[in-house]
Each structure stands twice: as structure tokens, then as C-alpha cells.
Amino acid sequence: MSTVRTALIAVTTTIAITAAVGAQTAQKAAPAAAAKPAMPAAKHVAIAPADIKWGPGPASLPAGAQMAVLDGDPGKAGMPFVIRAKFPDGYKIAPHWHPTDENVAVMSGTFVVGLGDKFDEKSMTTLAAGGYAHMPKRMHHYASAKGETVIQVHGVGPFQVNYVNAADDPSKKK
Description:
- The chain has 174 residues and is an alpha+beta fold.
- It has 2 domains: 1-36; 49-172, Jelly Rolls (Sandwich), CATH 2.60.120.10.
- The chain has 1 helix and 9 strands, in the order H-E-E-E-E-E-E-E-E-E.
- The chain has one helix spanning 3-35; strands spanning 55-56, 66-72, 80-87, 92-97, 102-115, 125-127, 132-135, 141-156, 162-163.
- Strands 1, 2, 3, 4, 5, 6, 7, 8 and 9 form a 9-stranded antiparallel beta sheet that branches.
- Strand 2 (66-72) and strand 3 form a beta hairpin.
- The longest helix is centred in the N-terminal third of the chain and has 33 residues, at 3-35.
- The chain is globular.
- It starts with a helix and ends in an 11-residue tail after the last strand.
């Protein structure tokens, strides 16, 4: 047998063995990949202001608020979300906290925020349109609106409002 022919047989055998080992590895890896839960497909969201579907705010907020879910699910644990809330002039939210971080961007109007267990207008920070506030989870805070005000809140669910003073919780009032 010639040296060239021996070399070709050796190369062909090496390729065949490599292909067989690769196929076995792929078969063993396939069940592991199949066992992983599928991640939801990414989606593109683009909503014009006129197309936002406003509804009443949740029972955990005082009457008069409106809310729109722009993306995600604020009620689902671990799920990212983006919501908008619209408040009438003079609207107030008593001291409360959330189990997750809250990120607030002021879209229009004036949003006024304060920290602590008691509503204290003198210690509040005024945020005009374009302003931003971040409240880490469990931080006690309160807010009000000057003029009709729209805020955008984003975070990771569950988004819940827990009042410092249970008597301030509108969902408990009958």
C-alpha cells in the first residue's frame, strides 16, 4: 500500500471517529437542553401616547388614580414590568413601601416625594417632568401630585403597596 493511500485512510478514519463522538455528545446534551424551561420570546413594544389604555388604579391606591400597563406583568413575581399612573391635582399617597425596588420617571406634571413614616410636606422633594426617583425595596415613602401628573414606574414584580399605617390602606376601607 502506498504512503499516500495509508495517509488518506488514516485521515478518513479520524474524521469518521470525530463525527461519531460528536454525534454521541450531541445526543447526550440534547435531553439536558430539552429539560430547561423555555424563556418567553422577546417582544418589541411601541405605544403612542394616544394608544395607552388607561383604567382605574388598583384598590391599593386612593380613588382618582388611573393606571396603564405598558409592558410585562406587575403582579407576577420576577417579571419585569412598566406601568404608567395618572394622578389628579392634589392627589396624595400615604406613607407606604414595596417588596421590590421602585423606579419612577415623571412624564408630565409635578410629582412630590418624601421619605419616612409620616407625611411631611416640608421635607418632600419636587420632581418636574423628566425627574426620576428610585426607592429601594422596603423604603418607607409617600407622594403627592401638583397638577395632573403622569409617572412611569418600572421594576420587577410583584408590585405591591404596603401601607405603614394599615388604616391608610384604601383597599381595607369599606
